[in-house]
């Protein structure tokens, strides 16, 4: 059974009701939350972004949906894994946040779900939410 790491942009697409929000909604409805993962980096980034937008009630609802009512798992990279992150930055020409997501997915054996095309140059590539029903 495939487990998925959702990149920051997937969560924000839905939270901010952007252009592909329905695609994300369909994905989140189809995949049990026990199979979904978020990095601590994404969680904190979402908090920063929603804070800047004055949307902290949405952040509180997000926390409730994912962790209190749902079973999404938060994962983090330890200091040793940061060396792998730096290597991913160099080899795949990723910026820090993309390398964090990529390394976390590899280290935890997760399929990476993202709208970011930068991951297409990595061995595992990426899935978009609409790809998951075909995966």
Quick description:
The chain has one domain: Rossmann fold (3-Layer(aba) Sandwich), CATH 3.40.50.
CATH fold call: Rossmann fold
Mean pLDDT: 94
| Class inferred from helices and paired strands | alpha/beta
The residue fraction in helices comes out at 40-55%
Proper CATH architecture: 3-Layer(aba) Sandwich
The order of strands across the largest sheet is: 3-2-1-4
Q: What's the helix count? A: 6
H/E element sequence: EHHEHHEHHE
> How many discrete domains?
1
What kind of sheet is the major sheet?
4 strands, parallel
Report the C-alpha radius of gyration, rounded.
14 Å
Got a strand count?
4
Low-confidence stretches: none
Strand content: 5-15%
C-alpha termini separation = 10 Å
Indicate the CATH class: Alpha Beta
CATH superfamily: 5'-nuclease
The dominant shape is: globular
